[in-house]
Design goal:
Blueprint (H helix, E strand, L loop, with lengths): L1 H17 L4 H11 L2 H20 L5 H19 L7 H22 L5 H29 L2
Length: 144
């Protein structure tokens, strides 16, 4: 009887070890599979392009629509990669993407309205800051 219990316990431990993965490995896998680093770089560049267009009073509505629509599309695509294996990283990335998405929508509708352009710029700036914080979390979790 003791032998059976010991055998079952050993088998259970062996099976549980086979299916487990560390949090850092899971996050590193998620980041790699989703191209997180490249996507963050793309989002940041898209936000910079939108901000440049918003700061230029001669930017046409069509120009704003183009750069802001691209940013919006990028945020939606990155949002589809959520959740991450880490709840805090997921929440931070989600906050960044929601803020960038809101900024892209504000940007799209800003046209020649100075107040709307300023509001869009604030959202884009906040979104990039949140994205930086999220990236720091992803990096810290992915490091063993």
């Amino acid at each position: 009887m003791i032998r059976v219990v010991a055998l079952l316990l050993a088998a259970g431990l062996l099976l549980s070890a086979c299916g487990s993965i560390s949090a850092s490995k899971a996050m590193a896998n998620w980041a790699t599979q989703n191209g997180y680093t490249a996507n963050v770089k793309t989002l940041t560049n898209d936000a910079k392009h939108a901000a440049l267009a918003l700061r230029d009073p001669s930017s046409s509505s069509a120009s704003l629509h183009t750069v802001c629509a691209v940013l919006n599309l990028e945020t939606e695509q990155e949002n589809s990669a959520l959740p991450t294996p880490d709840n805090q990283a997921t929440n931070l990335i989600s906050k960044a993407l929601n803020t960038l998405g809101a900024g892209s929508v504000e940007c799209y509708g800003a046209s020649s309205n100075v107040a709307k352009r300023a509001r869009a710029l604030r959202s884009l700036s906040s979104g990039v800051l949140y994205l930086s914080e999220a990236s720091a979390r992803v990096a810290s979790v992915a490091t063993p």
